[in-house]
Design brief:
CATH superfamily of the largest domain in chain A: serine acetyltransferase, domain 1
Oligomer: homotrimer
Strand order of the largest sheet of chain A: 1-4-7-10-13
CATH class of the largest domain in chain A: Mainly Alpha
Helix content of chain A: 40-55%
Largest interface: A-C, 93 and 89 residues
CATH topology of the largest domain in chain A: serine acetyltransferase, domain 1
Largest sheet of chain A: 5 strands, parallel
Distance between the termini of chain A: 42 Å
Structural class of chain A: alpha/beta
Chain lengths: 303, 303, 303
């Protein structure tokens, strides 16, 4: 068996050398999935102190714990940024200055996250308190990660923003591209299956339910990008106005598609056209067929 | 850099003091996300002994292992309940008596879970054995967690029930509110994207597929609640009868909406009206357009 | 309290003895969920060396690391296969020969995965590089696990294939049965909510979006299986041709249902009929109702 495995190891190495597309040996040192995951968890603790703790933090401790956390996050993030900037350098940027700028910007993100939490408490009758929202709502965690990843996306950082949002995606079922620009008071309820595309622009006080897709409608697959990987081509994903509610399973597509302020998009609607302010879009009731079930009828679908 | 980080730590602390909505320092000691997650995993081992083990458990060992597990669960759960009852006290209840009552009720939950497992084996042609169902079916894990969380919800316990079901949600993609009342022989197949609301009442032998929403249709966001946080307002979510099957992507909304016994709701249906016993609801075939693809036609949607 | 818990432990043991369906004490030693999960992670490292690492691997190291990994995987997989073959023996197969055959076949799987990664890079305008695809795309991880599980399914191995794909399901929200036969250049974008059934046959260059179901439409729940648990009954799930794109939320059902080459299935379509080559299936625009929102109209659905 030993000889078999050694032979096999050799064959794997030959395969590794041949199959370039999914290898990265003797190449750049890439950001580590595990490190980005740990880093993102720690950033969530910076954003929501006390909520992720095992025990309460008193005023005396908080300054020390925060200072230690910032150091730890600084070290981890600059290490991964070093690899990303090695992989795709950006003029005038180094791991240190990008990390410091990012951490400073987190203060503003905290303020915006407060509006998101308020929107969650406001928008979900099942939510009893802000505490419950912080402890239990996947939509709040997903937007928190996306807002932080968005800062790095706007800096043009390669790989890390997407790795952060894909970790949030794997935990929450919510898939928001780090490129999306999202206004304050944003609330995703339930969330599993939500997909928000790279060039989406979303207003304030927008509420979205599970399974909603804000996607692209484009005749060209090739997206022009600048040196920082940011999309240059025309917008591919929709623009959503202020105070819009989009119900479960709705799909809205296209860079030219706009949903006006205060409009409501009903569940399971499929839209590729723009909707003005103050409109309601729903399914037609007539499209369903309701009939009595025949005595001998066995019905087994979708098994 | 040291000075920069110290200065930043100070600014974070100022932000923590200002932004009340997502802080909890010098306040109540809240149930810990991590502790509730570990506790829930251990409860699953109590429910399904042997299935989560690394090695087989023989009769001789089982009594000792179970005794040890019960002690461990007792300690962990009362610790988190202490925090919850500190946060929202309930007259006549303390962590010890709630925990003991909960553990005793788990015996009944085990019996009901057996019916859920049987329903899974019965309802999924891809299921070969009860063992496969126990080892691999996310729907079984999700209902197991919900039935346990429901016990605590009915006691009026704050925060913990929702934290348990949100952990199950993050693992399975299935989002069942701890308030939902669900009959025996309940089976969710595939499950990703299922949302079942707080005031749902579901009968026996109900089968649900992925992406189904049993949600609310209400003109008022404000839900009256009793001191224990249990919903007092009129029912917001549907009532599902016995022997109902609801196929993938269907959405059923409203506290007044009833689905009668033995009825079948087809995939992607969107319902806000009641359906009697023995009915079938499906999409109309005419709503689709099927056409030949033009030679030069490039079609790229939803990218 | 001690006495209470001891009494309770006794009652749990009585329950364990009674409720046979979800017990497995003094029975077969089943494959461990945890072991299969660890094993699957290590297999992903064999498939994508360097991408899951914390640090770069140079040529010198790669042979040693690969050799060590193969040993570790060999030991773990044969241990779990021993349990599976004990549970359901297969004539002529033992853990050792199945494991060796499996590891050799992984070389071919690597080549096919390269086509899947290329399809992801080709099919998603948001993908900047193969590296990003490898590091961040849940669809690539899901198909990698399924292709490996499929090898064991075809050997007739009990339990393990489904445990592997359900772990991938819990991480990615993508549910592909190990029995599905999937051609090269397969790409699932976003992916949350995708369900692909046991007897699906999928061609090459197929692209699928989130929430797509390829499910069964059958009048009989009972599936004939051979001794190895492989489905013998007529096909329950659809056949998808080459170069087909299926957009978000589409549902295609039935073993007789065929989607022809180069056809496009629009979002949210629900199909139980076959579609020829070069066709496009979409929703009818007329089915939506778009109306102005009344001044005093409050609209709260699906809360």
């Amino acid at each position: 068996m030993d000889r078999e495995l050694s032979k096999l190891a050799g064959q794997f190495c030959v395969s590794y050398a041949k199959c370039g597309g999914i290898n990265h040996i003797e190449g750049a040192n890439l950001p580590s999935k595990l490190a980005v995951e740990n880093l993102t968890r720690q950033l969530l603790q910076l954003m929501f102190p006390g909520y992720m703790e095992e025990r309460p933090l008193g005023d005396q401790e908080i300054r020390d714990v925060t200072r230690a956390r910032l150091s730890s996050v600084f070290d981890q993030l600059s290490a991964e940024l070093d690899k990303s900037l090695d992989y795709r350098p950006i003029e005038g940027k180094d791991a240190g200055n990008v990390t410091l700028r990012f951490l400073r910007n987190l203060l503003d993100v905290r303020h915006i996250l407060q509006t998101d939490a308020a929107a969650a408490l406001e928008g979900d009758p099942a939510a009893i308190s802000a505490d419950e929202v912080m402890l239990a709502y996947p939509g709040v965690m997903a937007i928190a990660v996306q807002r932080m990843a968005h800062l790095l996306y706007r800096e043009g950082i390669a790989l890390i923003p997407r790795m952060m949002t894909e970790w949030a995606h794997s935990t929450t079922g919510i898939d928001i591209h780090p490129g999306a620009s999202i206004g304050t008071h944003f609330f995703i309820d339930h969330g599993t299956g939500v997909v928000i595309g790279e060039t989406c622009v979303i207003g304030r006080h927008v509420r979205i339910y599970q399974g909603v897709t804000l996607g692209a409608l484009s005749i060209s697959k090739h997206v022009k990008r600048d040196d920082g990987g940011r999309a240059l081509s025309k917008k591919r994903h929709p623009t959503i106005g202020d105070d819009v509610t989009i119900y479960a399973g709705a799909t809205i597509l296209g860079g030219e598609t706009k949903i006006g302020d205060r409009s409501v998009i009903g569940g399971n609607v499929w839209l590729t056209q723009s909707i003005g302010d103050d409109h309601v879009v729903t399914f037609e009731a007539q499209q369903m067929q309701i009939r009595p079930r025949q005595r001998a009828e066995a019905i087994d679908w979708q098994i």
